[in-house]
Amino acid sequence: MDSKRTVSIIGTGSYVPEKVLTNKDLESVVETSDEWIYSRTGMRERHIAAEDQAASDLGSEAAIKALVDARIGAEEIDLIIVATLSPDMFFPSTACFVQEKIGAKNAFCYDLGAACSGFLYAMDVAKSQIACGAVETALVIGSEKMSTFIDWEDRGTCILFGDGAGAAVLQAGGEGRGIMESSMGSDGSLAHLLATPGGGSRNPISHEMIDQKQHFLKMEGRDVFKHAVVRMSEAVLDVMEKNGISADDVSCFIPHQANIRIIDAISKRLGVADRMFSNVDKYANTSSAALAIALDEAARGGTIKKGDLVVLTVFGGGFTWGANVIEWGK
Ligand code: ACO
Question: 228 with 280: CB under 8 angstroms?
Fold first, then answer.
């Protein structure tokens, strides 16, 4: 279906908390080594939020930077979507807390749950809302305090994640094609491979559930790795076909920042290693924030420029995956 209006990204922002946790620091937390972590994941360090910082605090910091970049006031925002798997609380939505913190009093707000794919999914939903004329300006945020949901005694997962947030302001109009068609998919039959099984209505909070550490993220790393490579590669190929472009037309590919070996495997499959963006060394996997932070860094650092075609791709729990294409208009 053709969008009725062009939708552009008019500003981006990102925020990571002050505290840095290096691979070396992790050596005193679990039995691991800087060498093991770096060679398996490409990660050097990650940022960890302070005790009194929740997802909405991180998200608000990123949002304020995005608004400054977009040169608009918070009251101009009609819609706020926060993608997160580490919300401030079950309800109200983290987006409502962000609204209050940044003073976006004219917005309606909700959270979107698609695990690590959340920011791209939220961008697609916001884009559709703008394209059909329902809203003019939307603030899309990926924000995670992963450190709260990680088992710090499980070396298979605790080394992989970090905290942070990224944001983008979407608005009707702009030069070029803006945010183009997306390609997205999900496979609920594989939900068990990456999940936080406890604490919801399936397995409610109880002493027993907590003793069994079911409230922490669980992952079958090797399976996740394989599916992530296949699904992100397929999504990129599909979205390029859908939009009538080839890899040669694309200036920059920005994938979910989960592991440099996943990113390298996708680069190899698509033959685009020279244009693949990564910052996983600095932040580790910040789930739904990872793509948002990477997009902001690529834009601010001049990796993507006005008129460039940029392909974004994500993969996460669910499983969920997707890709989209943006003609950068700033
Ligand atoms: N330090 C040292 N040794 C470790 C560590 C660690 N931190 N973690 C595991 N090991 C050990 C294991 O115990 C195992 O030892 P064993 O052979 O004696 O049993 C050995 O290392 C190999 O373990 P594997 O799990 O097979 O290691 P692998 O090479 O597959 O790497 C990793 C593990 C890095 C987790 C990899 O599977 C991976 O990156 N998977 C994808 C994870 C991911 O990206 N998830 C998120 C994607 S979606 C989202 O963002 C939510």
Answer: no
pLDDT of residue 155: 98
Q: Which of 243, 259, 279, 285 is catalytic?
A: 285
Contacts of 70 (CB under 8 A, 6+ apart): 10, 11, 169, 171
- The reply to whether the predicted model has a pTM over 0.85 is yes
Q: What is the biggest distance separating any 2 CA atoms in the chain, rounded to whole angstroms?
A: 57
Q: What burial letters (b/e) apply to 60-96, b meaning 16+ CB within 10 Å?
A: bbbbbbbbebbebebebbbbbbbbbbbbbeeeebbbb
Sheet holding 7-15, edge to edge: 7-15, 164-172, 137-144, 79-83, 108-112
Spatial distance between the Cα atoms of 253 and 272, rounded to a whole number of angstroms? 8
Provide the mean pLDDT of the chain. 97
The Cα 286–Cα 147 span in angstroms is 10
Using DSSP's 3-state secondary structure scheme, residue 251 falls into coil
Q: Give tens-digit pLDDT for 42-56.
A: 999 999 999 999 999
> Sorting pLDDT into bands at 50, 70 and 90, what band is 1?
very low
Atom of ligand 1 minimally distant from the CA of 224: 41
The burial class, CB within 10 Å (0-12 / 13-18 / 19+), for 209 is middle
Q: Average pLDDT, stretch 314-324?
A: 98
Confidence band of 4 (pLDDT split at 50, 70, 90): confident
Per-residue pLDDT for 280 more than 90?
yes
Decide: 58 and 4 in contact? Cβ < 8 Å.
Answer: no
Residue of 56, 57, 99 lying closest to 80 (CA atoms) = 99
186 contacts 317 by C-beta, under 8 angstroms: no
Ligand 1 midpoint to CA 222 (Å): 7
- Cis bond leading into 92, ω under 30°? yes
How far from each other are the two terminal CA atoms of the chain, in whole angstroms?
A: 26
Place of tokens 């304020």: 64
Q: Which of 23, 37, 40, 227 to mutate to test the pocket of ligand 1 (most atoms within 8 A of CB)?
A: 40
